[in-house]
Amino acid sequence: MTSVNKDRSLVVIELVGGNDALNTVIPYNNGLYYNFRPTIGIPQEEVLALDQELGLNPNLAPFKTLWNQGRLAIINGIGYDNPNRSHFRSRDVWYTAEPEKISAEGWLGSVIRDLDPAGENVLTGVNFGRGLPRALVCKGVPVASVGNLETYGLMPDLQDEMTRRIALDAFSRMYGPTPGKDAVAQVLGQAGTDALKGADILRTAPQLYSSDVEYADNPIAQTLKNVAQVMCAGLGTRVYYARHASFDTHSNELLAHAKLWQDVSTAISDFTADLTEHGLEKDAVILVFSEFGRRIQDNGAGCDHGSGGVAFVIGEPVNGGFYGEFPSLREEDQLDGDLHFNNDFRSTYSTILNKWLGLDPDPIVNGQFEQFDFISS
Q1: pLDDT grade for 159, boundaries at 50, 70 and 90
Q2: Strand partners, 268
Q3: How many C-alpha atoms does 316 have within 13 Å on its Cβ side?
Q4: What is the pLDDT of residues 312-366, one digit of tens each?
Q5: pLDDT value of position 163
Q6: Residues 6+ away with beta carbon under 8 Å from 69
Q7: Does a structural domain hold residue 207?
Q8: Which of 169, 208, 258, 333 lies 20 to 30 Å from 49, alpha-carbon distance?
């Protein structure tokens, strides 16, 4: 069962690898920044100033435009208590909203369950990329994973329609839930049926889409084009997930980080323009996050795993501005050489869940957290 209603949507973009927050939002008038980063510091005259203290990396020019339009919220100092510098563990923390213990339930999986408790739409949540991030995992909640929407579907390489129908019929009978199967087989059968439904619905999205926006030929741009295609098709999808790598800039940071942010910021700018063209600009909010920040002191060519990161919330419904305090660079205020977080990432989650999606955030984020004011409606 799909809906053509313009329901509020959430697009989550994960910057995989640990984005360097200090070279993203830059304290360009703070001498300590340049003292700690003699080789990878961004020259003051190149920073895109946002106010008298902070500015954006020069490769984030599209974000500066969004900032000027009041559609970019910057959450400084975001993180969690007792930060873990392991990619795997820190990502799990963000995925499950559970810093204290291992949890099998993803926060967005819970969101999808709450948005569609009867499981009527197998496309309420869609992941764009290979594999399924734990953020989207929740028992009994189907989520489609799309590598490339243009070629997506079951048996898409079978050009002969009769052959494809025979293959799909066999797939349906093999995986479809039928009486007499044990519980595990029933679950697998339902998953197979959901995949069958989702694939055949999603493969229609590109045919229903046209746009004057020309996305760049890089992975994140093409992914966000796919997101726009599904959103414009009115399939009832509410949660969209995308990832871009690798922000693990231990070396060659100046070149690598520049290219990463140039691709991401341009893709997001094109995506927001696409939504505006299709009259959907008031129906979507974008969350951009990374599992942790990086060390304050550079290592000569890059910087190592740290904490105290930055997140962005973007969209027409967003009250632009700074949220959270920018962490101090003074040595006595550092956390073992890292930026010290000053707001729990679950405050950002809670704000989006409550003020944007209209859900009770507490059971999803495992607690009650202070909310921000970056959602205008």
Answers
A1: low
A2: none
A3: 15
A4: 999 999 999 999 999 999 999 999 999 999 999 999 999 999 999 999 999 999 9
A5: 58
A6: 320
A7: no
A8: 333
Exposed (0-12), middle (13-18) or buried (19+): which is 58, by Cβ within 10 Å?
Answer: middle
Which pLDDT score, from 0 to 100, does residue 174 have?
A: 45
Q: Where are the alpha helices (DSSP H) in 7-153?
A: 31-36, 61-68, 87-96, 107-115
Residue 377 within a domain? no
The domain of 249 spans 9-152+214-365
Give me the DSSP letters along 104-125. Answer: S--HHHHHHHHHSTT---TTSE
Task: Report if residue 3 sits inside a domain.
Answer: no
Q: Residue 353 and residue 348: Cα distance in Å, rounded?
A: 9
| Count of domains observed in the chain | 2
Residue 1 lies in a domain: no
Strand partners, 56: 25, 48
Quote the CA–CA distance of 334 and 338 in Å, as a whole number.
5
Same domain as 109, residue 90: yes
> In the block, which residue shows the tokens 């760049």?
216
Is 375 in contact with 351 (CB distance < 8 Å)?
A: yes
Least confident of 20-29, 64-73, 127-136, 331-340: 127-136
CA 169 to chain centre: 35
DSSP 171-192: HHHHHS--TT--HHHHHHHHHH
Residue type, 235: L
Q: What is the DSSP letter of 277?
A: H
Contact 60, 15 (CB under 8 A): no
Cα separation, 358 vs 318, whole angstroms: 15
Instruction: Please name the amino acid found at residue 188.
Output: L
Distance CA 376, CA 73 (A): 11
The helix/strand/coil state of 101 is coil
